[in-house]
């Protein structure tokens, strides 16, 4: 077992920290894992540079923080390790080896699921020299920036997360999903403000500007309110952009952060990422955070 001399370096005033002194392939002691977990909860996203995990080692590292899950887009999962989702524009034997496009629209992973993943790990195996960045927004910090009257208007409210309506925003070039998709992906009620199940922090639980309907509001009021929340949440001044280097690994908390990728020249460059996700709970809102297992 390798005792790591771990140090943390904040990456922006609002979110993110680089973790130095950890090799993810090592059999890390519980104390190191606890420190990483606390930093993950505090900073929302952690960056580990110069990593080189095999898929099995990435799954083993993910397991230190929860149950790795096989994600929904299973056609892009590795056959040897189905918990690893391949995001890549590369081809092998004439076939794509993964999903070529990561959404360029703000989102949180699995927003459309009853139990979305608590966390996501993304390892940059091969990254372009320009473009293909990942942006992050801190949704708990965004909630804090809202005027009190606006918080009062949204606390405890739900909206209907409509995946079918959302898909064309994420993947503009693709065929518009047909009505049959609604049977596969029914609308999912989600809290507009989500209480973090470990820290009790309240966070906005919205994504890019898709006209999702806030329950109990007419269309006009719902759209106007969503647009106000969106402007606060994704104000670029408070977001952080990660420029990838080969060997970078990011680990983020989907209960606090939203993210999006940027475009790159897919004809000139290859971008191959391994992604794992950690099982999560049903999102909820608790006015005083009391349903959360408050971290000390
Ligand atoms: C994702 O949206 O899960 C991946 C983001 C990226 O490829 O940068």
| Overall shape | globular
Approximate strand percentage: 15-25%
Number of helices: 7
Bound molecules: succinic acid
N-to-C SSE string, H for helix and E for strand: EEHEHEEEEEEHHEHHEEEEHEEEE
Ranges with pLDDT <50 over ≥5 residues? none
Structural classification:
alpha+beta
Instruction: Compute the separation of the termini in Å.
Output: 26 Å
Rounded mean pLDDT score: 93
Main sheet characteristics: 8 strands, mixed
Evaluate the radius of gyration.
Answer: 19 Å
Helix content: 10-25%
**Using DSSP, what is the number of strands?**
18
Q: What does this entry look like structurally?
A:
This protein has helices at 30-43, 55-63, 139-145, 148-154, 163-170, 181-184, 219-233; strands at residues 7-10, 17-20, 45-48, 68-69, 85-88, 91-92, 95-96, 119-126, 134-138, 158-161, 188-191, 193-195, 202-204, 213-214, 240-242, 249-253, 257-261, 272-278. By secondary structure, the protein is α+β, with helices and mostly antiparallel strands. Helices cover 22% and strands 24% of the residues. The radius of gyration is 19 Å and the shape is globular. A hairpin with a 6-residue loop joins strand 1 (7-10) and strand 2. Strands 1, 2, 3, 4, 5, 8, 16 and 18 form an 8-stranded mixed sheet that branches. The longest helix is centred in the C-terminal third of the chain and has 15 residues, at 219-233. The site of succinic acid (SIN) has 11 residues, from strand 8, strand 17 and strand 18.
